[in-house]
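Why does residue order matter? Because the sequence determines the fold. Keep that principle in mind as you read this record.
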Amino acid sequence: MNEYAALILAAGKGTRMKSDLCKVLHLVAGRPMISYVVEAVLSAGLGKISIVVGHQSNEVMKSLHSQGIEFAFQEPQLGTGHAVAMAGSLFNDFSGNILVLCGDIPLVQPRTIEEFIAFHEQQRSLLTVLTTCMENPSGYGRIVRDESQHVLRIVEERDANENEKAIEEINTGVYLVEARLLYSLLERIRPDNVQGEYYLTDIVKEAVKETVPVQAFVLKNSQEAMGINTRADLARASTIVWDRIREDLMNSGVTLLDPTTVYVDAQVRVGRDTVIHPCTTLSGATEIGKECVIESGVNIFDSKLGDCVTILQGSRLDRVLVRDGATIGPMAHLRPDSDIGKNVKIGNFVEVKKTFVGEGTKAAHLTYLGDSIIGKHVNIGCGTITCNYDGKRKHTTVIHDNCFIGSDVQFVAPVEIGAGSLIGAGSTITRDVPPASLAVSRTKQKVYPLRTGQGPESTDEDRKS
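Structure:
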């Protein structure tokens, strides 16, 4: 479809968002809203994509990792017509049709763009507007037609009279225009409106003056045309995207026990026969394998889970890798750069940070493992901690395969425990332990009998020690 190019307008700040972040970078179901528009255009097969940026232009460009996108700059922002004019140099050698759309309509679907283009071709149109009908058209420009139902002009709501405000057919802000005609019409528009801006909508009025027929393709699903202007709009759009994702997941073989309470962002991938319990959040670039169980109250961010993994209630995973067959939780906290091996058990109130845990190892409860390398089939007793920070630097604890770590052990890093060793309960380990050794570090037990009204008295056994 090389005869069609897309021009996405994304220069505005979005003052009604009341935010320091420009509007098109606000997240809809975990992704910047503009990324949905770019994806829809790419999926529709357009060969050339250009984006007009302005406010926080560097951040907008960084957020779009797609190759081959060209950028134009609009500074100052003097309206949508001015934005399109600023991209003129990108189309000097282009003689096809330009699809113009805004970066704040994340619900638009590729099929809609394809049908819009097909209609434009069937009508042999030079200028086609995408419209839709809304019961409450407040905030949108209205489509004004003549008695023969031909499009005469688009009037913005702030400039509309009462009769025009009653019109339910609205402008979606999406146009298809032959490139040379588009820039010819832009030269004629003037900022004679309440805002003092160059409205792109005025190209319709100018085309009618030049007796160029203006076609309108009516979008049946008005939901796709919803523009994001406020935080409430943002929430509504996210809800719609989440609903689509939930439906797709269930159709692909994932069980959601209570779909409306499960929040799965747009980039997340979930394998078949996985069961997701209520009140869970899966976000970022998370990937979950097949036949997993995700219990209630779990939050997973930018993490990868293998097959047959169980995440028990109330656990939090952030940028970690969990391999096949592992069980996490309940109430476990896996922090960034942790790698949990196959069939590992990370139990309740265990925190793991920047640690590799080998296959079959168990840390069942009340443990902290930070900046560590833990081998295979290690048993880590309750209350064990790796003391990784000396106040200035972080240090590593290494525990080799088949070790048994008693309860309430502190490893003062840097320290290395040889394979097959046993660490006695209550020990503070400050030096390396050779393989197949027993290490105990604690004072001799003392027992003092208590006498009524008196303090402890030492025993003969104590005196002997």
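The first strand starts at residue 4 and ends at 10.
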